[in-house]
């Protein structure tokens, strides 16, 4: 499609009579409404297809591509047919020709934004603003094609205020916003590429990978802001005022945010916690047990056995006690308390407890399981089995449960009773109750 079709000549509306203009407007509205209905039905059908069965990533991209371009494609086809029909009948078709060029421009803008979105992988904010970006770019392109862009530029440049010795116009603000957005998107893309490379490096520890990727991302973002300010011609000495304001804001209300940010770098520097560690964090809300999934700038993602992710602020891991089951070594010691009645042989019970732990999966043979007589309790002998378990990141309560079940089976097979408190109430003369006392069941 040539440039003459897309960009109209100056004065293209001159000479149009109201009747021809009305017929072209009616045809234009019919084409746009039909294209909108087709696009709506197509998107609803594609959503139902995605909900019914899973699809590969390539097919999902293809479906998104179709949803983004279905409206301009259908509208372009219908307007082309309408324009050809008006031309064949010898009727004026300037409005349809211009509308066709604008719809083609909309399709090109949507195509470019879609390709950049899938290539750069922007953040959720930019992805949510994709339609707004398309609308802004298309409006600018439409004004250029219609020859109205110089008038709009002069109007925006005339709307200006003086800030000190600097003239700030609406045109400068829009240009600064566009350049800053472009530079920050490129900086985010470069940081994401570098982060992917660093995270895939086999020569770095997990904490070092996260730390290096965070530093690279922060440096690229700061560089992007400085470059954007330089491009729009702002004086960088104004950053001193911004820095003073930021320092005041940190002193008044941003202490926790900055504390979490600095705590994240401390966790990376001392390598006390890294992705994959099994930790138990004690805080005001209780105990949190789970696997460290991610180390972020403000929080740590901890996933428990139920698959629930807890976003734990970095500061909590600095100021609160943290049990890192993966930090010190590959094994931990478990203590399993057991109580037997006074009528049973404690030595036999201790031997059965050690046999119940021998040969269990993840239970070490050296040091061997050991049973101890800890105390003479109110209801029976207080015994304790001590075992060393490897790979605590796979859980310790599962091993505890297996050993307890094995001990219970052994005790039942050898007639060893596990006592429980019983209360005896005696009714004396006059209906008065004697003091209750606990006692174990008779052997």
From TrEMBL:
It is a multi-pass membrane protein. Residues 335-417 form the Mechanosensitive ion channel MscS C-terminal domain. Pfam families: MS_channel_1st, MS_channel_2nd, MS_channel_3rd. Residues 257-326 form the Mechanosensitive ion channel MscS domain. Keywords: Cell membrane, Membrane, Transmembrane, Transmembrane helix. The chain crosses the membrane at residues 20-39, 60-86, 98-120, 132-156, 168-190, 211-232, 238-258. The keyword Acetylation does not apply. It is found in: Cell membrane. The keyword Disulfide bond does not apply. Residues 214-255 form the Mechanosensitive ion channel transmembrane helices 2/3 domain. Belongs to the MscS (TC 1.A.23) family. This is Mechanosensitive ion channel. It comes from Lysobacter zhanggongensis.
């Amino acid at each position: 499609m040539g440039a003459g079709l897309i960009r109209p000549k100056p004065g293209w509306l001159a000479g149009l009579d109201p009747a021809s203009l009305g017929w072209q407007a009616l045809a234009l509205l019919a084409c746009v409404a039909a294209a909108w209905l087709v696009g709506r039905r197509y998107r609803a059908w594609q959503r139902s297809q995605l909900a019914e069965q899973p699809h590969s990533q390539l097919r999902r991209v293809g479906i998104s591509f179709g949803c983004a371009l279905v409206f301009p494609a259908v509208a372009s086809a219908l307007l082309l047919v309408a324009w050809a029909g008006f031309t064949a009948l010898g009727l004026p078709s300037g409005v349809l020709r211009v509308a066709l060029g604008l719809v083609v421009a909309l399709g090109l803008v949507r195509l470019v934004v879609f390709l950049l979105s899938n290539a750069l992988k922007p953040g959720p904010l930019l992805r949510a603003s994709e339609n707004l970006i398309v609308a802004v770019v298309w409006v600018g392109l439409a004004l250029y094609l219609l020859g109205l862009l110089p008038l709009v530029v002069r109007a925006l440049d005339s709307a200006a205020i003086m800030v000190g010795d600097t003239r700030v116009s609406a045109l400068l603000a829009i240009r600064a916003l566009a350049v800053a957005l472009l530079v920050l998107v490129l900086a985010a893309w470069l940081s994401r590429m570098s982060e992917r490379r660093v995270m895939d490096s086999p020569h770095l520890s997990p904490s070092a990978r996260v730390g290096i990727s965070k530093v690279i991302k922060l440096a690229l973002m700061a560089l992007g802001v400085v470059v954007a300010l330089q491009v729009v011609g702002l004086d960088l000495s104004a950053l001193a005022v911004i820095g003073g304001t930021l320092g005041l804001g940190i002193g008044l209300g941003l202490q926790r945010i900055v504390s979490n940010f600095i705590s994240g770098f401390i966790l990376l520097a001392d390598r006390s916690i890294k992705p994959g560690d099994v930790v138990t964090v004690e805080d005001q809300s209780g105990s949190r047990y789970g696997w460290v999934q991610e180390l972020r700038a403000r929080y740590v993602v901890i996933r428990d056995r139920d698959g629930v992710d807890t976003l734990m602020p970095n500061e909590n891991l600095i100021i609160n006690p943290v049990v890192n089951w993966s930090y010190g070594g590959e094994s931990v010691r478990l203590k399993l308390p057991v109580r037997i009645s006074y009528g049973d042989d404690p030595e036999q019970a201790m031997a059965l407890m050690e046999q119940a732990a021998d040969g269990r999966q993840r239970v070490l043979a050296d040091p061997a399981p050991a049973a101890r007589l800890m105390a003479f309790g109110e209801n029976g002998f207080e015994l304790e089995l001590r075992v060393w378990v490897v790979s605590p990141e796979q859980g310790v309560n599962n091993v505890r449960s297996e050993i307890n079940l094995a001990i219970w089976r052994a005790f039942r097979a050898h007639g060893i009773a596990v006592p429980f408190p019983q209360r005896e109430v005696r009714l004396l003369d006059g209906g008065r109750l004697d003091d209750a006392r606990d006692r174990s069941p008779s052997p």
